[in-house]
TrEMBL record, chain A:
Recorded family membership: Belongs to the ABC-2 integral membrane protein family.
GO biological process entries: response to antibiotic
GO CC annotation: ATP-binding cassette (ABC) transporter complex
Listed transmembrane segments: 47-69, 89-112, 142-164, 170-193, 258-283, 370-391, 411-440, 461-490, 496-520, 532-557, 577-601
Location of the ABC transmembrane type-2 domain: 51-286, 371-606
Keywords noted in UniProt: Antibiotic resistance, Cell membrane, Membrane, Transmembrane, Transmembrane helix, Transport
Subcellular location: Cell membrane; Membrane
This protein's name: Transport permease protein
Classification lineage: Bacteria, Bacillati, Actinomycetota, Actinomycetes, Micrococcales
Automatic annotation (TrEMBL), chain B:
Protein name, UniProt field: Lipooligosaccharide transport system ATP-binding protein
Subcellular localization: Cell membrane
ABC transporter domain span: 7-237
Gene3D superfamilies: P-loop containing nucleotide triphosphate hydrolases
UniProt keywords, alphabetically: Antibiotic resistance, ATP-binding, Cell membrane, Membrane, Nucleotide-binding, Translocase, Transport
Recorded GO CC terms: plasma membrane
A Pfam family assignment: ABC_tran
Similarity remark: Belongs to the ABC transporter superfamily.
UniProt GO MF annotations: ATP binding; ATP hydrolysis activity
Membrane topology summary: Peripheral membrane protein
Length: 609, 331
């Protein structure tokens, strides 16, 4: 049932459309090819349309409640933002949040689906067999994604108006500026992705080295001028900053000289047009040179290489035949060492060989480029830099009482968010490893199926993979704690305990993440995952204390796992333990056991159908 | 406790929802034997293999592999099996050598032992010159051989090969067949599926013909041909629209020809004995089943019929399948 949806393309295999229709359709397709392709892409998006609609409504509400109101309390309402023309912090960040969420969506829509079209499902090769030109296929995807951005931005803007977060009627034009920002950041990425033959972690590199920094240093949550000079320069290059600033001009008349408005518009338009042309060019080269070969389409170059290899192989084999008759090259039965399997309880699930799964992961990491591995280190450091440097000037300090610490006095904003960011990073790393990576090995490379044809059991595979996620997470945490130690934000003893806690938290999320992934059948379902993670991050006491909320909301946040991780980290960082500390630890113990049990059950179901 | 059979299945059934992929089949594979499942696409061969390999559950029936129930002792059963799936499932993040070593590690075999074993297997698969290559730099035939080498790392008693040579060019196929012969010689039990009758004839001592999840016939390739077909076949083409009417005429003509009482084996020596059995009509040609196709052809010519082309050949498993199911094996 899993392969069924992977090969299904409703348009390509439509048995109902009569042949006569196809001829006229072909003519139409030639003329309006891009629209035709856009329609096809939109139809396939319909499958996860609810996710898009739901997130368009819920995202603005969440951001308004979290950043606008929550962080707004710390920053202080009004006053500070009058000079920018906004009457509150909420109004100041609202346009930027719209532009940023579109940019984030661009990071998804212009990467994985494109890779899918070229490699994983080869949809583009199917479309190419129809009368569409490669350029039309590219433009079709871009148009479809633009429509998706448009819908998202329109709903988002509507919600902002409802909350009174936009004052000017010109604000509706933000729909256009946000779409333009999304294209300006997404299209260069699409041009790059469409040149790729293989996914070797480039997607996460783009996410971590391009989209994240451009977002974090784009003046979304504070004016860019709060940052030191060299980071401001990064912001000037970020299409997100230009889209943010344009949105602010439209939403509340952010005082901006006319020439700068022109620069914003031209910069965004320029990138969009150039990158669009580049994408069409790459598509034309790639799809133009390669022809459709019936059921197994492939690059001409690939086929030629295969042919060469086969010829070479045959001659190699032929040459080795004469000398070989005596040695006979038949594997001899030697003294076979014991193969690992168990008898008795759980023999069908566990063979006592987690080591091998872990070892395979290490070898694969070593074979891949190290930079991908190291990129995970960067994320928490970027967050700390962005929020620590950017928001600190707007916040005098955090009242210790207010955040539930017993010591009293105030603590610096950077010291307040640092332990929380470690918890968030542990969560993100574990979730990434146990969702994207596991999904990949489950559905695309089918690695687990190979493992399950040996004497390994599902528990060996699941636990081995979780250990791998922890190994990675452990290294990232080590790096981040190093930065905190150098910055004097934690002391060494706390750092050691916090490292252990990071692993503990990661274990909780990895085991749940893996269980959830085992239910997934397509990439887009990952969006649901993101939709759970987002609010969890926003309402987790990471960036501001939850005491700003009414009791009901507080109770809800306290039920979520990330809050427990953040609080546990802070307890350790500020050496302030209580009975609650035990509650946090127990919460994770339950999560780990439940996650592992569900994962094992699902693995068994998936592999022994 | 030594068990004389390698695999025994009774009433083996697999249902996917309402659909029955494997419909209550019984078979026994003896130790050291090479056993085949011959059938068209969708017959349920892969599903049967997956149930043997303890990666699919049974809907009904019993199964014992090396004396164990795969559903109860999955890892222990798989420890004794070498599995070559229909689709090569190599680890693209590892090199050729690492693919074998890691696979051995999954069985818990020690690295030192594996290092030596891997070299031996690379040589067996004629891949020594590719040991450090990336998997994606291998040709289809090389990938297949690597998959087989990898499956041998645990020195399996039973090797399960699901369509081992489908999709390979003839040369790569022959290299592979040679390797499989060697394994057969060394006493490994081979269980293979195929929809190529020549492969079944080459590699299998005994086979079952399966169609739509049921066993249609069982026996050795020669025995099946003897029991379900004539010794020879005459292939005739009269042109697309004339095949059907010619079939009638041929049947009448050849049935009246002097035939010995037993149309199959005994007619072989006599030039006058046609040993006619029946005519099959395929979309593009007619198949005349006869003990002596030459004699049949003579008769046809003598009656003044002029086929566009004619071909005399020996009966194959393809004909057995056609006889049993009324359909061709590869469509
Ligand atoms: N996981 C599955 N879910 C539903 N149907 C399946 C599944 N696997 C195989 N089938 C169906 O079972 C039948 C037999 O499949 P298979 O064993 O792969 O045949 P073969 O290997 O002989 O070509 C096919 O009709 C196939 O569509
Ligand atoms: Mg099959």
């Amino acid at each position: 049932m899993s392969t069924e949806h992977l090969t299904r393309d409703p348009e390509l295999q439509d048995p109902d459309s009569p042949a006569a229709d196809k001829v006229t359709m072909a003519g139409r397709a030639r003329r309006f090819g891009a629209l035709h392709q856009a329609e096809r892409t939109l139809r396939s998006m319909r499958a996860y349309g609810t996710v898009i609609l739901f997130s368009s409504v819920s995202q603005p509400i969440m951001y308004i409640l979290a950043m606008g109101l929550g962080l707004g309390v710390l920053v202080g309402e009004g006053g500070d933002f009058a000079e920018y023309g906004a009457s509150s912090y909420l109004m100041y960040i609202a346009p930027a949040i719209l532009a940023s969420t579109v940019a984030m969506a661009a990071g998804i829509e212009f990467t994985f689906p494109v890779m899918e079209g070229f490699k994983w499902r080869r949809l583009y090769y199917g479309a190419q067999a129809s009368p569409l030109s490669p350029g039309q296929i590219a433009s079709g995807h871009i148009l479809a994604v633009s429509v998706r951005f448009g819908v998202h931005a329109a709903i988002f803007t509507g919600v902002l108006y409802l909350f009174g977060a936009i004052s000017s009627p010109l604000g509706v034009l933000m729909i256009a500026s946000a779409m333009l920002g999304g294209l300006a950041i997404g299209l260069p990425i699409m041009a790059y992705v469409s040149t790729l033959r293989d996914e070797k972690g480039q997607m996460s590199l783009i996410q971590r080295f391009v989209i994240m920094p451009l977002f974090l240093f784009s003046g979304t949550f504070y004016p860019l001028t709060n940052l030191p000079g060299f980071l401001q320069v990064l912001g000037w290059f970020s299409p997100i900053w230009h889209a943010n600033e344009l949105g602010r001009v439209l939403a509340f008349g952010h005082p901006t000289p006319a020439w700068l408005i022109l620069v914003h518009v031209l910069y965004l338009l320029g990138i969009t047009i150039l990158a669009w042309l580049a994408t069409v060019r790459v598509f034309t080269r790639r799809l133009g040179l390669e022809e459709w070969r019936g059921r197994t389409p492939g690059a001409k170059a690939d086929a030629r290489r295969q042919e060469r290899l086969a010829v070479k192989d045959a001659s190699d084999v032929a040459r080795s035949v004469p000398g070989e008759t005596s040695s006979a090259a038949t594997p001899v039965r030697s003294e076979l060492p014991r193969i690992s399997f168990r008898r008795g309880f759980g023999a069908n699930y566990y063979s006592g060989n987690i080591r091998a799964v872990f070892g395979r992961g290490l070898t694969a990491i070593r074979n891949n480029r190290g930079v991908i591995f190291l990129s995970g280190l960067l994320e928490p450091v970027l967050f700390l830099t962005s929020f620590g440097l950017g928001i600190s000037p707007m916040i005098a300090g955090v009242d210790a009482e207010q955040v539930g610490l017993s010591g009293g006095g105030t603590i610096s904003y950077a010291a307040f968010i640092a332990p929380a960011l470690l918890a968030v990073s542990a969560m993100n790393g574990a979730i990434f490893d146990s969702t994207w990576n596991v999904f990949f090995k489950l559905k695309i490379t089918k690695l687990y199926r190979t493992m399950m044809s040996t004497s390994l059991g599902p528990v060996d595979v699941a636990v081995g993979e979780i250990c791998l996620a922890l190994f990675r997470g452990g290294l990232y945490a080590l790096g981040f704690l190093g930065v905190l130690l150098v910055g004097g934000l934690v002391d060494p003893l706390a750092a050691v305990l916090m490292w252990c806690t990071a692993l503990f938290v990661a274990l909780g999320f990895a085991s749940i993440g893996m269980a959830v992934t085992s239910f997934m059948t397509r990439f887009q379902q990952m969006d649901w995952m993101m939709m759970v993670l987002m609010p969890m991050f926003l309402f987790s006491a990471t960036l501001f204390p939850i005491s700003v909320y009414p009791a009901g909301v507080q109770a809800f946040i306290q039920a979520l796992p990330l809050w427990h991780a953040v609080e546990l980290m802070r307890d350790i960082a500020f050496w302030d333990f209580s009975g609650l500390t035990l509650v946090h630890i127990s919460y994770y113990l339950v999560m780990i056991v439940a996650g592992l049990a569900l994962t094992t059950y699902r693995m068994k179901k998936l592999f022994l159908r | 406790m030594p068990v004389e059979h390698a695999i025994r299945a009774t009433g083996l059934t697999k249902r996917y929802g309402d659909f029955t992929a494997v419909d209550g089949i019984d078979f026994t594979v003896n130790r050291g034997e090479s056993f085949g499942l011959l059938g068209p696409n969708g017959a349920g061969k892969s599903t049967t293999m997956r149930m043997i390999a303890a990666v699919a559950s049974r809907s009904a029936g019993t199964m014992s592999v090396a004396g164990l129930d795969p559903e109860q002792n999955g890892p222990e059963v798989r420890a004794r099996l070498g599995v070559i799936p229909q689709q090569d499932n190599l680890d693209e993040e590892l090199s050729v050598r690492e693919n074998i070593i890691m696979y051995g590690r999954y069985f818990g075999l020690p690295r030192r032992w594996l290092n030596a074993k891997t070299e031996e297997l690379l040589e067996f698969a004629q891949l020594t010159h590719k040991a450090t290559a990336r998997v994606e730099d291998l040709s289809g035939g090389m990938k297949r051989r690597l998959t087989i080498a990898r499956a041998l790392v645990n020195e399996p008693e039973i090797l399960l090969l699901d369509e081992p040579t489908t999709g390979l060019d003839p040369q790569a196929r022959h290299i592979l067949w040679d390797r499989l012969f060697r394994l057969r010689e060394s006493g490994t039990t081979l269980v293979l599926t195929t929809h190529h009758m020549d492969e079944a004839e080459q590699l299998c001592e005994r086979l079952i013909v399966v169609d739509q999840g049921r066993i249609m016939a069982e026996g050795s390739p020669a025995g099946l041909i003897r029991d379900h077909s004539t010794r020879e076949v005459l292939e005739l083409r009269f042109g697309l629209d004339r095949n059907q009417e010619q079939a009638q005429q041929l049947t009448t003509l050849l049935s009246s020809a002097p035939a010995p009482s037993n149309g199959r084996a005994s007619s072989s020596g006599s030039a006058s004995g046609v040993g006619f059995s029946h005519v099959e009509v395929l979309p593009d040609r007619l198949l005349v089943y006869a003990g002596s196709a030459e004699s049949a052809l003579e008769q046809i010519h003598a009656a003044g019929l002029r086929p566009m082309t004619s071909l005399v050949r020996r009966s194959s498993l393809e004909d057995v399948f056609l006889r049993l199911t009324g359909r061709t094996l590869v469509d």
